[in-house]
Amino acid sequence: MIKALLMQDLSAQSQALARGQCSSAELTAAALAAIAASQPHLNAFIHLDAPAALLAARQSDARRAKKRILGPLDGLTLAVKDNIDVAGMPTSAGMATRRGRLASIDAFVVQRLRAAGMVILGKLNMHEAALGATNDNPHFGRCENPLRDGYTPGGSSGGSACAVAAGLCALALGSDTMGSVRIPAAYCGVVGFKASYGRISTAGSVACSPMLDHIGPILRSQRDLQLVLPVISAFDAGCADARDLPDLHALSSPRWVAASDVEQLGTTPEVTAAYRQAIQALRDRGQPVTEIAIGSYDFGRARRAGLLIVEADLLVEHQQDWELQPQLFSAQLARFLKFGEKQPASAYAAAARVVAASHIEVARWFSHGDVMLLPTAPQTAFSFADPVPANQADFTSIANMAGIPALSLPLPCAAGALPAGLQCIAPAGAEATLLALDLQGICTR
Amino acid sequence: MIKALLMQDLSAQSQALARGQCSSAELTAAALAAIAASQPHLNAFIHLDAPAALLAARQSDARRAKKRILGPLDGLTLAVKDNIDVAGMPTSAGMATRRGRLASIDAFVVQRLRAAGMVILGKLNMHEAALGATNDNPHFGRCENPLRDGYTPGGSSGGSACAVAAGLCALALGSDTMGSVRIPAAYCGVVGFKASYGRISTAGSVACSPMLDHIGPILRSQRDLQLVLPVISAFDAGCADARDLPDLHALSSPRWVAASDVEQLGTTPEVTAAYRQAIQALRDRGQPVTEIAIGSYDFGRARRAGLLIVEADLLVEHQQDWELQPQLFSAQLARFLKFGEKQPASAYAAAARVVAASHIEVARWFSHGDVMLLPTAPQTAFSFADPVPANQADFTSIANMAGIPALSLPLPCAAGALPAGLQCIAPAGAEATLLALDLQGICTR
Questions:
Q1: In this structure, what are the phi and psi dihedrals at residue B216, rounded to the nearest 5 degrees?
Q2: Cα–Cα distances in Å, from B394 out to A369, B319, B353, B397?
Q3: How far apart are CA A412 and CA A274, in angstroms?
Q4: Does the bond joining B156 to the residue before it have cis omega, within 30 degrees of 0?
Q5: How far apart are CA B213 and CA B180, in angstroms?
Q6: Do A244 and B429 touch (CB under 8 A)?
Q7: Rounded distance, CA B376 to CA B378, Å?
Q8: Would you call A216 helix, strand, or coil by DSSP?
Q9: Which of A156, A201, A221, A330 is catalytic?
C-alpha cells in the first residue's frame, strides 16, 4: 500500500496521512528504501540524510498525534536540487569545485517548506552548474530518465524530475534559468512550474543567472501547485529578485492562444502531433484557440543572448573557484566560461537588449488571448548517445526572459513512447489562472 | 497678462484657456517670444519649429471654438528633451554625431501628448548622450540655470528644467537614467517625476541604458502630474520596457521614512538644513517620520556599477557612430566609452548584481513606512567653474535601479539662495500615493 502511495501526488499522500492510513515515518522510510533501490540505476540523489529525514518524519507524526500539524504538507517528503541550500547539507550545484561545501542555513524556499512540516530527504542530481539540459554530470554521475534506460531526464533539474517521476519524493525543488524545471518535467512526464520573476525568492541558491533564475517545483499533479505555491511564494525582503507582484484573479474561461508554426521551429513530428491533439481537444470542448505564427521571433538570437548572459554571470558566481581550481571544471563548462571571458561588456549589454525584447513578443501573444500554449520542448527525451538538440530551451527560455509564469503538463503518448509537455504561459502575476486551468483529459496529470 | 500666465502651471493655463482669458495661439506666441528672448542667455532649446507650433495652437483654438477639445492639456505648450523623437524634428541626443538626424515618427509619449492636443514647440538642450549632469554641452552650447548666471541647470535634462523654470513651455519631457529628470528639476526649483520602471514607455527615445532609463515630466506644480501622468502612462505593447504594473491605491496618510545620516553621505549644510526643516514641518503637523540610517548601503559602489552599465549600453546604442566618426564625440564622453570598451562581460554581470541589490535596500526602507524622503541631490546647483560633485546622483539613482517611482519637489530657500529638492520615493506601482501627497507649505510647488 505504502509503495503505491509513493507514486501518488502530494494531495493524495496528505489525505492518507490525515486519514491515518499511514504515518510520515512509514512514508519516509518507504521513500528512503525506494531511493536506495533506485540509486545504482537512476542516480537521482547526490546527497541523502536518512536519519534526519526519519527524525523529521517522527516529529511530524508527533504533531499529528497532538492534532497540531503545520498544514497539508506536514509529513510529506521533499528533495531539493543541489544548487539550493539545505542547512547542514552540501550545496554542490553539480560541480566538483563545490563538493562537500556545507550550507549553514536553509534557502528561503526550503525554510518555508520545512516550516510547513515537510521532511527533507536530501539533494538531487543536476547538470553541472545548472548550465545544460542532459544531467550527464561528469562529477556526480549521469542521472537517468526513469521512463527509458539510457535516456536523459532533461536538465538542468534532471534529478528533480527523475525523483518525482520515480516516486522517490513527493515534491522536488528545481531551478529554471532557460527552462531547467519545465524541460525535465516534460521529459519525465511530470509537472513543472516556473512562477513570475520575483514571485519565489532565489535567496540561498547558487546563481546561474540572477536575471533569468527562477526556483520552481516539480510535482506529480497540477492540483498540488495549490498546496505548494502559497508556501513558497512569500515576499522575501532580503532577496534582490523578490518583487511585490500583482495577484491577478484566476480567469475561469481563459482565451487560448497557440502557435501555428511549431514545425518550422524544429518541433519533432511526435511532439507536434501531441501538441495539435491537445489544441483539437480544447476545440472539441467548445473552447476556441487562436493560432498565431511565432516564427518571426528570432529564437536562435535569444538563445545565444541568454547563453552569453549565463556564461558571464557564471564567471561572477564561480570567480574564485575558476581562478583557483580551473581543472575541476568539466571541459564543456570550461569551454563556456572561456567563451564568456572573451566577451566585452557591450556584448552583455547587447544580449540584455535581446532579453528585454522578449517582452514585446509575449505582449503580442497576450494581445490575442490569456494563456499561450506551446510545446515545452521541441522534442521528447533523447538518448545520451545522441547529440544535444540546440533548440531544446527555445520554447521555455522566453518565459524566463519576460519573467512570466509557465506551467508544463505532460501530454498523453502511446504505450512505450516518451511524453511531450504542454506549456501553458500567462502574463506576469497571472499564476492563479495557470493553477485554475482545467486540462483534465487533455494532459495526463 | 499672458506673460504672467507663462509662469503658471498647466492647471492654471488650462483654466485660462477654458475661461477664454486667452487663446492657445496667444499663449504659444508668447512662449515663442520668451524663448527667442531667452535663447542667447539660457540656450534651453536646440531646435524650434515656430510655424508648426502656431499652426497646432490655431487648430486647438478651432477645436475649442467647436467645444471639441481633446482634454485639459489641449492647447498648452510642450517641449521635448532632444533624445526623444518628435516627428519631423531632429533627435540629436545632444550629440554632434546625430546633429540633424530627423525622426520620422513621434516617440510613444509624444504621440500621446500630441493626441491630447498639446502644442509642441521644439527640442530641449541636454547633456551630451544623456550621460552627465551639468548640461555643459560642447556641441550645442551650455544651458544656463535661470535662477543664477553661470550655474548649471543640472542634467542630463537641463534644458527641460530650465525651460519649465523660465516659463518657456508649460510642460517639458526629460529622461532619467540615474536622476536626470529629478536633479535638474531640483536645481532649477521645479517639479520632476520618474514613474515605476515600465510605467511610461521609452519607445522612440535614444537609449542611455535600457535597464535604467525612464522618461519623465518636468512641471511647475505637483498637481499638474494628475493631468499628465494618465496621458503618458498607457501600456505600450511595442516597447521592451513596458510593464503591466499594479495600480496601488493612494494612501491618504502615508507613513513617512527619512534618512538620519544624510550629512555623512556628503550632503551640504544648506541641503541638510532644508531637508531637516521639511521633516520637522511634517512632525509639527502631527505626522510621525521614522528616521533610519541609510549609510550601510554602498552608494559609491552602486554609482560605479550604474556608470559601467551606462557606458556599455551607450556603446551598443551608438556603435556605428563610435566606429565611423569617433572624432565627433567629446573628450569626456570618449573617455567614458573607452573605459567601457575595456570592460569584460563579467564586469557588466557583476554591475547588474549591484543594481539588483538596490531592491534589498529599498525593501528595507519600505519595511519602515510608505514614502521615503531624501534630498534629491546632496547639493544645490553649482557653478560651471566648480568641479562636478561625484555624488550628485547617489540619492536618485537607487530609484532607477530599483525601478520605483520618485517625485522631486522644491524646498524653500532664502531670497537669492538656490533651492534644494525633496525627493519622495514609493514602492513600485505606488505612483498614486506620490501624486496625492500633501506637502503644501513644506514644498514650494
A1: -150, 160
A2: 42, 28, 17, 6
A3: 7
A4: yes
A5: 9
A6: yes
A7: 7
A8: strand
A9: A156
Residue of chain B whose Cα is closest to the Cα of A401:
B240
pLDDT for B1 equals 81
Using an 8 Å CB-CB cutoff, list chain B residues near A244: 246, 427-429
A437 in Cβ contact with A222 (< 8 Å) = yes
For residue B349, give the nearest of A313, A353, A364 by CB distance: A313
Domains, chain B, ordered by start: 1-445 (3.90.1300.10)
With cell 519602515, the residue in question is B368
Chain A's closest residue to B312, CA to CA, is A346
Residue in B closest to A345 by C-alpha = B345
With 0-12 / 13-18 / 19 or more C-beta atoms within 10 angstroms meaning exposed / middle / buried, residue A257 is: buried
Instruction: Reply yes or no: is the peptide bond before residue A156 cis, omega within 30 of 0.
Output: yes
Which chain B residues are Cβ-neighbours of A243 within 8 angstroms? Answer: 359, 428
ipTM of the complex: 0.94
Give yes or no for a contact between A64 and A74, defined as CB atoms under 8 angstroms apart. Answer: yes
B155/chain A closest Cα distance in angstroms: 24
Q: Which of A125, A130, A165, A47 is nearest to A317 (CA)?
A: A130
DSSP-derived 3-state class of residue A375? strand
Q: Which amino acid is at B56?
A: A
Strand-strand pairing, A289-292 and A256-259: parallel
Q: A326: closest CA among A96, A140, A138?
A: A96
Smallest Cα–Cα separation from A386: which of A362, A418, A355, A434? A418
Cell of A130: 545548472
Grid coordinates in use for B123?
527640442
What pLDDT score was predicted for residue A111? 98
A255: exposed, middle or buried (Cβ count in 10 Å: 0-12, 13-18, 19+): middle
Query: For residues A107 and B306, what is the distance between their CA atoms, to the nearest angstrom?
Result: 29
Cell of A270: 511526435
Number of H helices, E strands in chain A: 15, 13
Active-site positions of B read: 81, 156, 180
Please give the average pLDDT of every successive group of 10 residues along chain A, which has 445 residues: 94 98 98 98 98 98 98 98 98 97 98 98 98 96 98 98 98 98 98 97 97 98 98 92 89 96 97 98 98 97 97 98 98 97 98 98 97 98 97 98 98 96 97 97 96
pLDDT of residue A387: 96
Q: Cα–Cα distance between A155 and A131 in angstroms, integer?
A: 8
Closest CA to B147 of B408, B422, B417, B420: B417
Mark the ranges of chain B whose per-residue pLDDT is less than 50.
none
Bridging pattern class, strands B171-176 and A289-292: unpaired
Q: How far is CA B215 from the centre of its chain?
A: 7
Q: How close A249 gets to chain B, by Cα (Å)?
A: 13
Q: What is the pLDDT of residues B272-296, one digit of tens each?
A: 999 999 999 999 999 999 999 999 9
Counting DSSP H helices and E strands in chain B, the numbers are 15, 13
Q: Quick one: pLDDT at residue A1?
A: 81
Please, which residues have CB within 8 angstroms of residue B27's CB and are 6 or more apart in sequence? B2, B5, B6, B13, B16, B17, B57, B75, B76, B77, B170
pTM: 0.96
* Contact between chains at A241 and B356 (C-beta distance less than 8 A): yes
Q: What's the grid cell of residue A372?
A: 499561450
